[in-house]
């Protein structure tokens, strides 16, 4: 029981750290005229329909692009672009308001809308990479980056991303249905852990005060037991870090950085979530790196890990829908800002409740998607009526809950607009 409780805390801490990164990227982009101008220029082909030219070029490329001649789409419809904006908006609202979990609904939402899993993963990765490139202000964080940790970590991340992308593509080439089932199963496990913890946290918060952030902060500035054990292992080469926090700094074997980077890179390439949700807990809880150094190094690694995985493992094979990525970027920028403002006028217990419901909705959506894929693979025998019913429940329930959450956030925002403008918030 303690193992699962620690694992849940580990994952939620990472999810919240990634949410803080999302908010920072959003602020950096929206507060810069240059970045907004670049974003506007990127949107010109979308609004003018100039992507038709790129589509014509893609059709002239060799037939293997995209695998099974399925993808590499440059075309779009207004409905698809609008849907991508709404998906990004809802993900941003969850991230900004709840402070965790928003990015986990993107791939399930795209897959529920009919996008193949591998294309949803590649598109989500590219959306994260675009946000990182446009929003990162690395020079502000360079003082907090341990170059030796970052470079060693990236060695493993590149290897993990390469393997994760290769696995996804090979499974898709073998059978597209198996590919969707594989990606769906990964999300079932991850969202299942998050949903269980979120609901448990919400139920506890109704009866007593639960403050996870303070506990996480305390652990972040101390070396946890696991971190002490790992730092005590003397396997050359040894890397020194946190010299500005501890006299003489702390030391760790490079092998642990490479292994951590490998895991993060593989998760990023398979799930399409950038890997940021794993970096923070691995560094702070697992290896005893200070939160200050972790934040700077995490921003640095997301740019390169997401960029490498998106371009080398998906873009060159045609598994990225650029129009969808741009729409999600637009929606998420607005959603994160609105969501973060609403937290000023909404009780923390209510926010925990919505977090539990939305993550659980994502979990049930993927669980309900599994029977159809398992039947198509010949693993189970189920009636068509049962499959249809379960599928409708999963898709309809998911989008109804996410839409209701978005409507509630906007209602809270506009109904408290005067209070928010006056600054009289609790």
Structure summarized in a few sentences:
The chain is mainly α.
Explained architecture:
It is globular and about 65 Å long. A two-stranded antiparallel sheet has the order 1-2. Helices cover 76% and strands 2% of the residues. With 426 residues, it is mainly α. Residues 50-72 and 209-220 have low confidence and may be disordered. It has one domain. The chain starts with a helix and ends with a helix. It has helices spanning 2-30, 33-48, 51-60, 78-98, 106-112, 117-135, 138-141, 147-174, 176-205, 212-221, 225-232, 254-271, 276-287, 291-314, 322-342, 348-376, 384-415, 417-422; strands at 238-241, 250-253.
Q: What descriptors fit this protein?
A:
426 residues; mainly alpha
Widest sheet, order of strands: 1-2
- SSE order, as H and E? HHHHHHHHHHHEEHHHHHHH
Q: How large is the count of helical segments?
A: 18
| Oligomerization status of the protein chains | single chain
Major sheet description: 2 strands, antiparallel
Count of individual beta strands:
2
Question: Structural class of the secondary structure composition?
Answer: mainly alpha
**Share of β-strand residues:** under 5%
Helical residue percent? over 70%
Low-confidence stretches: 50-72, 209-220
Count of domain modules? 1
End-to-end separation:
37 Å
Mean pLDDT: 77
Shape: globular
Indicate the radius of gyration in whole angstroms: 21 Å
């Amino acid at each position: 029981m303690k193992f699962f409780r620690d694992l849940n805390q580990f994952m939620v801490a990472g999810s919240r750290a990634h949410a803080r990164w999302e908010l920072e990227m959003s602020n950096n982009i929206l507060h810069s005229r240059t970045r907004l101008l670049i974003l506007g220029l990127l949107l010109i082909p979308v609004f003018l329909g100039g992507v038709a030219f790129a589509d014509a070029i893609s059709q002239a490329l060799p037939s293997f692009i995209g695998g099974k001649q399925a993808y590499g789409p440059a075309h779009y419809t207004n409905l698809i672009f609008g849907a991508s904006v709404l998906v990004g908006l809802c993900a941003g609202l969850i991230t900004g308001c709840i402070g965790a979990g928003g990015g986990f609904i993107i791939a399930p939402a795209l897959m529920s809308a009919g996008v193949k899993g591998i294309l949803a993963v590649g598109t989500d990765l590219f959306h994260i990479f675009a946000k990182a490139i446009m929003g990162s202000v690395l020079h502000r964080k360079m003082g907090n980056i341990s170059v030796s940790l970052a470079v060693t970590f990236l060695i493993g991340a590149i290897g993990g991303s390469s393997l994760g992308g290769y696995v996804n593509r090979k499974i898709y080439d073998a059978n597209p249905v198996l590919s969707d089932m594989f990606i769906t199963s990964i999300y079932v496990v991850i969202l299942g852990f998050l949903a269980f913890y979120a609901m448990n946290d919400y139920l506890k918060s109704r009866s007593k005060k639960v403050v996870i952030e303070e506990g996480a902060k305390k652990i972040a500035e101390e070396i946890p037991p696991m971190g002490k054990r790992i730092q005590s292992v003397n396997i050359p080469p040894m890397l020194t870090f946190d010299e500005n926090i501890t006299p003489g700094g702390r030391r760790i074997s490079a092998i642990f950085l490479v292994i951590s980077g490998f895991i993060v890179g593989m998760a990023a390439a398979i799930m399409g979530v950038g890997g940021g949700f794993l970096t923070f807990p691995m560094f702070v809880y697992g290896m005893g790196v200070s939160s200050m150094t972790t934040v700077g190094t995490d921003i640095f690694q997301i740019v390169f890990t997401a960029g490498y995985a998106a371009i080398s493992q998906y873009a060159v094979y045609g598994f990225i829908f650029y129009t969808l990525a741009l729409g999600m970027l637009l929606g998420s920028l607005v959603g994160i800002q609105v969501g973060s403002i609403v937290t000023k006028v909404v009780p923390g217990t209510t926010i925990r409740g919505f977090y539990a419901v939305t993550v659980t909705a994502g979990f049930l959506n993927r669980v309900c998607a599994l029977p159809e894929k398992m039947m198509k693979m010949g693993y189970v025998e189920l009636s068509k009526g049962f499959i249809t019913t379960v599928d409708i429940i999963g898709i309809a329930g998911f989008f109804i809950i996410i839409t209701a959450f978005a409507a509630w956030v906007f209602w809270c925002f506009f109904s408290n607009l005067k209070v928010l403008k006056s600054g009289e918030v609790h």
